[in-house]
Amino acid sequence: MHAHRIHIASPAAIAAAAVALAAFGLAGPALAGASSASASSHTITLKNIAFHPAKLRVAVGQPVTWRWEDASLDTQHNVTSTGAARFKSSPTKMTGTYTVRFTHVGIYHFECTIHPQSMQGEIIVH
Length: 126
Ligand SMILES: [Cu+2]
Hints:
This protein is α/β, with parallel strands linked by helices. The chain has a domain at 38-125: Cupredoxins -  blue copper proteins (Immunoglobulin-like). It is built from 3 helices and 8 strands. The protein has helices spanning 11-23, 29-34, 38-41, and strands at 43-47, 50-52, 55-58, 63-68, 80-81, 97-101, 106-111, 120-125. A 4-stranded mixed sheet has the order 2-1-4-6. The protein has a 4-stranded mixed sheet with strand order 3-8-7-5, with no helix packed on it. The two termini are 30 Å apart.
């Protein structure tokens, strides 16, 4: 009866909120439903020798796609798991994508083995 109603003015505001929530790791199940354009929100870009974002939350069963965008730097990268779960892209990609669907709740760490100092990341599956 006194339920709070939150009105979000624009898609831009929704996107900003999603980014803010993701940055602080607070994105909940409701957010996943709100972002029908989910493909972009579950993409990690490999650019300027870094993962963008380095930390991402997704719901169980949703795919995460890494996208290589450092061809202009003539630099190769890979996505290699560093925890118990095993996943690995081809080792020396410069373009294209790699997708993993996480089917279990957990925290999955990964790195680029070519640039482990600056390229480390984490997928939180909830
Ligand atoms: Cu790299």
